Amino acid sequence: MVGRQDGLLWYKDSGQHTNGEFSMAVVQANSLLEDQSQVESGPLSLLESGPYGTFIGIYDGHGGPETSRYINDHLFHHLKRFTSEQQSMSADVIRKAFQATEEGFFSLVTKQWPMKPQIAAVGSCCLVGVICGGMLYIANVGDSRVVLGRLVKATGEALAVQLSSEHNAGIKSVRQELQSLHPDDSQIVVLKHNVWRVKGLIQVLIV
Questions:
Q1: Nearest 10 degrees: CA dihedral of 50, 90, 127, 21?
Q2: Among the CATH numbers 3.60.40.10, 3.40.140.10, 3.40.50.10610, 3.90.1150.10, which is that of 3-164?
Q3: Backbone phi, then psi, for 39, in 5-degree steps?
Q4: Which of 105, 117, 27 is closest to 66 using CA atoms?
Q5: pTM of the model as a whole
Q6: Is 131 exposed, middle or buried (0-12, 13-18, 19+ CB in 10 A)?
Q7: Do the beta carbons of residue 131 and residue 54 sit within 8 Å?
Q8: Which of 63, 69, 98, 117 has the greatest number of C-beta atoms within 10 Å?
Q9: Is the pLDDT of residue 205 over 60?
Q10: What GO molecular-function term can you cite, just one (predicted)?
């Protein structure tokens, strides 16, 4: 796919992949583009006999581009490694890839902290879709949302189908989960200026 820029709009033309055609568009909200996206198609494993499929990742950076770029550079490689170990694609493989990527970024932050302390304030939401063996796997971290557009042939209408739930303190079930995980912390979620925030600071819950 060829990347193009039109003002603050970045987009990639449609490209043919294992499971169909894909195109991407990003509207740049800041002077520095903090977001990343990728489509990988073909072997989802380091083994030649491993499963084939399509990996789609969208990473909504916050506070800088470092985290989203790190995810873009490492998450898919971890996914291929764990798929090779288990010789199949599964929700557990995706979960392990997320965990390995998070641990790797934490290690990077620890190393860069003395010279670049602001890196500890940089983060990213992460949306992933994997199509493999006729299955669509969806994973998310943060308060971005995966939505599937479905065409109704009879009417020509496009329906939006929500496929993931945000991790945001504004959602009651998320607040309840936080409170159950931290029963001794009465300030784990705080209503501040009519907005629920974790520790009174952020809305996003990274789990």
A1: 50
A2: 3.60.40.10
A3: -130, 120
A4: 105
A5: 0.83
A6: buried
A7: yes
A8: 98
A9: no
A10: protein serine/threonine phosphatase activity
